[in-house]
Every structure is written in structure tokens, then in C-alpha cells.
């Protein structure tokens, strides 16, 4: 009889322990959606990282009406600095996945950092929303099914850039940093420009950490193109040296993507340049962008949102929209099924995740740099909107 009672007590204790474990696993973390944001808060792309984080914070605020919750679950986000170093990005992403148990990854500012982290998203089976990295390989050769990109890619940039300058018989030289972002950008631009009848007479690449571009620019002058198309990102831009070496005065027209506001200050010599841009705060005409501009000024000392701020906001909007549709469920397979083909409103209008490669199709802007009263840098002025259908890039993940 004593043995029976002892056995009964042991069974009861086991039931209580299992019940306690079950209660622990279904509370706390299950009531919170955790998002890990990887961004360059130091290094050459520091300004891009800060823009993304500020936009992401505002995006969560907008998408949740300031409540920071969706489908009855709280949302929190953790920001980690990749220092614009791929090995650091891997360390920080691993920490977010293993220690913080994040439900989503977002980032990063550098294509190199992002490409280093993509295998971790696959290993841990977590959605990674890529923003603002643009290298084609992110949704091309290095893509996996856990990758969704709200950022535009290099091919989308290329289609917009080629539309601005390429035509039959036009000779074009390209200039870009010597890493994945630059090579992908030039490759995609070349494909689009050649299709329009242009000839690429030189592809010139520079050390992405360089500050002296004299030899690169001299090669461009020697090639005597009609246009110089520049693909660039980061603080060490070549614009001052391009002006110092009188490239335009030698009959070579400059074309590029209009960059963020700090870089626009260095482009005084390029007033009149026709190219494209990802975003400038006066270009989109919709209620979400109006809200972004107004609230960004209010939250960040009167500053307007910059080039990658709306991208950060868009990443947040995409995640919250997906969670609304799954009613807060974070099962990865369900999220993938939900997000493939999902359309959602953003500061740049409606975007859609293309099912084939999870690249967000989106509006870009053909612009001309002009002087505007009251603004002490060249301003991107709209020539025309380039629709999501018009800028849809080739599918490269086959």
C-alpha cells in the first residue's frame, strides 16, 4: 500500500512539474514579438544605419497606432551595431538568434554584412527582412526562402538609371566601389543600358575605403565616354574629385542615384544632373509619407527623413502587416506563405513581395538636381515616377 501511495505521489509531482514547464513556455515570450535589427551604427555606412533605425521605430509606431502591439502581443526590438564588418554582423546576428530568441531579423546597412548573415536566417529558420542592402545577390545567387527584401535592389536602380541616359550609340563609363554592391550595380546597369542600345566603354572600380580617386578618374577621362554613371554608397564619395578633375567640363555628363542629404551637400558641381533616386522626402505624395515627414521632424529635432528612413519604416510596416494576417502567429512557414505576394502600403506607395524571389516591387523616381530657394544643397526634383512594374528587376535566384 505504501508503495502504491509513493508511486501515486511521484506521478502527481511529475504532472505538476510538466504543468509548470508548460505554463512557463506559454507565457512571457509567447506574448511578445521580438525583432532584431542589424545596422551600421558605426563605420562607413553609419548614417544609413541611423536612418534605418529611426525609420523602423516610426514604422512600428505608425503600424500599431502607437500601442507597440499586434494581435494582442507586445512588440519589442533590439538594435545591434554591425560596425559595417561582416564578421561582426555574424556575431551580432548569432547573439540575437540564440540569446534574444528573436522572431525576425532586419538589416543590414551593408550588402557585405547582409550576405554574411543570410545563411544564419536559413540555419535558424527565421524571416530576415533585408533593408537597406541592395546587392542583387541577396535576392539572387545567395537567396534563401527566409529572405524578404523591402529595400530596392541594384537591378531596380539600374533600370531607373539606364532609363535616364541610355539610348542607341551612347558611350557610357561606370564607376563603383570594388565589392558586391558596386559590382552588382554595374552589372545590372550594363544589362539595362546595353538593351537600350548604349555601349559600356569602361568599368572602373575603386577600393571602397579609398579617399583618393585620381587614378580611377583619369582612366575614365582617357576612355572619353558621353556619360559617367556612378554607383556609390558611403561617406567617402568621389564627387569632389570628379569636380576637381573637371570631368563635366571635358564633355562627360555625370549620372547617378541622388544620395542622402549629407552627400547632396558635396554635389554642388552636379546641378542639372539627371538620374534617379530611391527617396527624397518631397517626392512621394501619399498620407503615410506625410505622416513620416511630420513625425520625423517632431521626434528628431526638426530633421526631415532621409534616403533610407522610409526603408526602415517599410520593414516595420511589412512585419506588422504579416503578423496581422497571421493573427500574431510567428510560425515561419506560415509567415512565408503569408508574405509571398503580400502587398502593403508604405511611404513610397504600395509595395508587393514578388513570390518568386521575395523582392519588394516598388516606385523609384527619375529626378534632376536643381537649386531650390531656402535649401543649401542640390535638391532632387521629380521628372517622373518610375512605377513598380517599370522598375521590376530580373529574377536572379534560379
From TrEMBL:
Gene3D superfamilies: 3.40.50.2300. Pfam families: Peripla_BP_6 (PF13458). Keywords: Signal. Residues 32-370 form the Leucine-binding protein domain. It comes from the Bacteria. Residues 1-27 form the signal peptide. Belongs to the leucine-binding protein family. This is ABC transporter permease. It comes from Sutcliffiella cohnii. The lineage of its organism: Bacteria, Bacillati, Bacillota, Bacilli, Bacillales.
